[in-house]
Every structure is written in C-alpha cells, then in structure tokens.
Automatic annotation (TrEMBL):
A GO CC annotation given for this chain: membrane
Organism of this sequence: Caenorhabditis auriculariae
UniProt superkingdom: Eukaryota
UniProt name for this protein: G-protein coupled receptors family 1 profile domain-containing protein
Keywords attached to this entry: Membrane, Transmembrane, Transmembrane helix
Amino acid sequence: MEPSEWFSNASTSTAAVDECAIESNDRRWYFALVGTGCSIVSILTNMIIARVLLSRRHSHFFFLGLLALSDCFLSINYGPVIAMDIIKDRLQILWLTRLYQLYVGPLLGLCSVSMAFSSYLIILATIERFLITQRSSWLGAFRRHRGLSAFGMFLLALLMRGPIIFESELKRNGECTGLTEYYIDLHSIVHTFLYGTVYRFYIRNIMTVFVPFGTLALLNYCIVRTLRMQQRSAEMFRFLSSDHKASFDFQRFQSKIRSATRLMVLVVCSYLLANVINVLVTLWEYVAFQSTQDGVAYLIYEICTDVTSVLYVFVCATRIFVYYALNKEIRDAMMECACGFPRLPRKSDYIVVTRSFDSSRHIGTEIDAVAIAIARRLMSNELLATSKSNGQLDDDRVDSPLQAIVIANRNAGEPPRML
C-alpha cells in the first residue's frame, strides 16, 4: 500500500458516515495496542542487536547491524504515526489532534524511507551471503565497499520514499469545527500524470515493493540450493578423510558458514512473510484501485493495511530471538553484552590450520584454502610412510583422492610442461 494513500483512506472512512463525525473503531484500537507493545520490544531488542553487530569484532554482520538501527527508528515512530491516529480518535482531545496533524506527514515520510532502506539492507546482506555460498571472487571487493553500498541504498530509499513528506497538506473541512475542523488530504501534485502516475504509482511501487520481494525470493532459493549441494560435498569429504580430527575441524568451519547462511535465509523468509500482504494489496491497487474504497472491500482493505503494519513491527521485535537461536557467534556476543564481561574461550572454539604452501599459488576462496591445507596435512602422513618404504617420493604418483585434490590445486598455478 502507498503510505500517503493512508491520508485519503482515513478521511474517507469518517466522511462515509458524517463529515463532522469522528469514528472510533474498537478493532483498530486492539491493533494499536498490539503494535505498540511489539514496537517497545523491538526498540529494546534492536538496540542490543546494533550494539553487538556494529562492533569491530563482528564487522561481517555489518548490514544486519544497520538493519537493527533502521528497525529501531521505525519502531520508535510506530506509536506517534500509527497508534496515535487511533488514540486521538478515541480520546478526542483537541490539542492532541492538532499536534498529530502537524507532525504526521513528515514523520510518515521518514518511516517510509526507513522501511525501504531496511528492505535494501536485507538485499545487500543476502547478496553477500550468496557470494559466500558461491565462493565468488567478487566477495572481497564487495566487502571492501560495504559502507559505500549501504550509503547508495540509503540514497535510493530517500529518492523513492522521501517525497512522501510533500504529498500531504492540511485542509479545512467545510463548516465543521473542533476536532474535525481540519483534515489531512493528498497534495495536488499527486494527481498529476508524471508524478502521481508514472513516479508515485509505477516507479515507486516497483522499486520498493516488487523488486525487493522478487530479488530476495530468488536469492533465497539460490542460497538454499547451494547450501544443500555444499552439505553433500562436506559429507563426501568426511567419507574420504581418514584423519578424524582434521575432518572435524573442517566440519566445524563449514558448520559456522552454514549457520550464518541459515540465519540469513530465515531473515529473508520473515521479510517475505511480513510483506506478502503488502504485495497483494499493491497488486489490488494496480488492478482496481476504486474497488478498494467501497463497502466491504474497503473494510478488507483497511484490515490488510493494519495487519501489514503490525506484522512488520512484530518481525522487527522477534528478530533477536532468530539471531540468538540460529547463530552461536551472535548468541555468545549477546551474552557477553548482557553480562558485562567476556566469555572465556574454550579450546573447541579455535580451528588451527597449518598452511605449508605458497599462498600465491593456490586458487579458489578461503574455504577452498582450508580444505587444501587440511588435505595436505593428511597427505603428508601418507607421503612419509611411502618415503620410508621406497626411499623416495614420486611427485606424479596419486595414491589417494586427497593427493589428487592437492596435486590439482598445485598444478593449477604452474605453466604447462614442455614434452
């Protein structure tokens, strides 16, 4: 749903009965209570997440840290923007109504920018996780420009949602006085073709609703598919390895990556679930907007918009429990932040891999390097045993699958031999 449409919807619901009457809906009152409770929890939990993930030690969760800040800002403004609209109609206090009418336009625009920025940050975090699972050579460059990428996405969110601040104006409501003397309506610029139809209806909705939803759904599918393939590869490596300690180290290294990947997958799934109603409502507006303003259809339309706003804040509030349950590194960091002192490291927290080869000659990513280093250590025992029995080492002899892996990596950086 277009955020500025909320102004005209609010005025339409009251005007349907009487231009000067104030309608107080118990259903919306309950939505406001639930949403406000979720927003309070979200503020506290996202402050903790931002405090933990934006530290230098956890810089690889940079985008999720910024996401926590954006969610915290959005949760702070849920009460003044969404809940206060319902509270003022229920309390019917004149100064509270006037104050709300003055600040709601700019604040709603800032909230819309924050929502778009959050969706773009989830896209960036998912792209980074996708590059990790694909073991892409672009991962290093992407990580070096994290700050620039986040700033670019913020500018895009500001461009797409920022003008909402100027799309509303305060108008006099005929002969009404008191609480209904003024009402908030859409600015005349909204009814122009270039701005209202091309930019506001098509470009903005496509770039902030359909593109993020479709992109995240596609990336999520690719990540899950790659994760399953890598899990089968890890099982094959464990089957080929005769050194149980090295195999265990490699499994824990891969398990850490899979844990972070599953965390990102669930974050994306929660975003998709929270926004699926918004996507359907936006499609409804595309097909037949006038039908959303009449009779029973308007009631359904209003309920969908209320549910969407509560769902979004609910996802923000419960994100900390997802982080805590699925990622051990974040869980330990949160415990350290809560307790005020660092947790003593255990021996099993470390993975020591000795790399006895020239790093400039190896190919692949860091994960491949760890696998090759472990394979070299395993193969050294086999070569030592062969040298004792034969008195020499044959460089071209392949006695095991591990030797084949290492020799292939070693020869990848060498020029072809002349026959």
